[in-house]
Design goal:
This protein is of the alpha/beta class. It folds into three domains: about 5-150, P-loop containing nucleotide triphosphate hydrolases (Rossmann fold), CATH 3.40.50.300; about 155-215, Helicase, Ruva Protein, domain 3 (Orthogonal Bundle); about 220-335, Zinc Finger, Delta Prime, domain 3, CATH 1.20.272.10. It is about 60% helix and about 10% strand. The protein has helices at about 5-15, 35-50, 55-60, 70-75, 100, 105-115, 135-140, 155-165, 175-185, 190-200, 210-215, 220-235, 235-250, 255-270, 280-315, 320-335; strands at about 20-25, 60-65, 85-90, 120-125, 145-150, 170, 205-210. The strands form two sheets. Strands 2-3-4-1-5 form a five-stranded parallel sheet, sandwiched between helices. Helix 14 packs across helix 15 and helix 14 packs parallel to helix 16. The longest helix is centred in the last third of the chain and has 35 residues, at about 280-315. The radius of gyration is 25 Å and the shape is elongated.
């Protein structure tokens, strides 16, 4: 079941199992995972399973790259001493020793435990990647313990934001919500960061407008970067030169600016048909699309290589960083006379 179905079942019938595996969606066409949803439900489960104030003795956390399956099984099989119940959280579950996970003699104790867990122990495993063919996955599935946590679609994301703000006794206008999602993309961690800024900006105001979103998310240097992107896309060397100097005067370091330019070119490449991955938000896609249109696929690759060469020169050859950056921007914004529009 997915996390939405799990929440409904939890409120009506309680836990489907005392052993749960939170993982990416494997039922759709493409694997996706939203860790923020996992953290929300884990926090809710911990609060509901162990008495408040007993977290220090009733909560044990393991990491898959630092522990073994037999240690986890031993902890789960041991009755709690100073709390009536306990929660065992295993993060990075997918990183448990691969040899152990593929050898029946190593995973047998866990398989046996999953079929007969302690009522006083709640086992919560988090895997950022998953293979539904593996015995451990199938064992969790057999006890109805697999909880898929896929990324939210656009409508679900907006509903999540509305609910988040409602819990803070705030409302947001439809156009403000559209702008927020457009700027931040579909990752809830990015949305949360933006909401923190937004709530700090609006203070005691109950209603949030699109102006609030624009003003709270505005960053002078960020806006200058987008302006530099526009100037390069237009092939306007003079404008690009002036904006670059403005960024440098704001205290931005040349290597940082080169890195951002490379990121912009990389996202421009993601808008092309050959790229399976797309920019993280429609805001970024709309901003870099002119770059992709102007350069084309071949020149985009060449431009990214030019960024890499500039970075190498800065780090390895002792080239003056500012001079190297200025040459890069001039080369990227230069349009040969024959290609210029009259």
């Amino acid at each position: 079941m997915d996390v939405k179905q799990f929440k409904k079942e939890l409120s009506k019938k309680g836990l489907p199992s005392n052993c749960l595996l939170f993982c990416p969606s494997v039922s759709g066409n493409k694997e996706s995972f939203e860790p923020v949803l996992v953290e929300e439900i884990i926090e809710e489960l911990i609060k509901g399973f162990i008495p408040e104030g007993t977290e220090s003795v009733g909560l044990q956390t393991f990491y898959g790259d630092e522990t073994r399956l037999d240690e986890i099984v031993m902890e789960c099989s041991t009755h709690p001493f100073f709390s009536p119940r306990k929660v065992v959280v295993v993060r990075k579950f997918e990183l448990l020793d691969r040899n152990e996970k593929s050898d029946v003699k190593f995973i047998r104790p866990m398989l046996d435990y999953l079929q007969n867990p302690l009522d006083t122990t709640l086992l919560l495993c988090v895997a950022e990647t998953v293979d539904s063919r593996k015995p451990l996955y199938q064992a969790f599935e057999s006890i109805n313990g697999v909880i898929e946590c896929p990324a939210l679609n656009n409508n679900e994301l907006k509903e999540w934001v509305r609910q988040y703000l409602s819990n803070k006794k705030k409302k947001i206008s439809p156009d403000g919500l559209d702008e927020l999602v457009s700027r931040c993309g579909t990752k809830l961690s990015d949305i949360q960061n933006a909401l923190t800024l937004l709530l700090g900006f609006v203070g005691e105001k109950d209603s949030i407008t699109i102006k609030d979103v624009l003003d709270s998310c505005a960053d002078v240097a960020e806006e200058s970067i987008w302006s530099l992107t526009d100037a390069i896309a237009l092939g306007n060397m003079k404008m690009a030169w002036l904006i670059l100097n403005d960024l440098l005067n704001q205290g931005k370091e040349p290597p940082e600016i080169v890195s951002v330019i490379h990121w912009l070119l990389e996202n421009a490449y993601k808008t092309t048909e050959l790229s399976e991955e797309k920019p993280r938000s429609t805001f970024v896609m709309n901003k870099v699309s002119p770059l992709a249109k102007r350069f084309g696929l071949k020149k985009l690759v060449a431009a990214m290589n030019l960024c890499n060469e500039t970075t190498y020169a800065m780090r390895q050859t002792g080239t003056d960083e500012r001079t190297a950056l200025e040459l890069l921007v001039l080369k990227l914004s230069y349009i040969p006379p024959k290609q210029r529009k009259n």
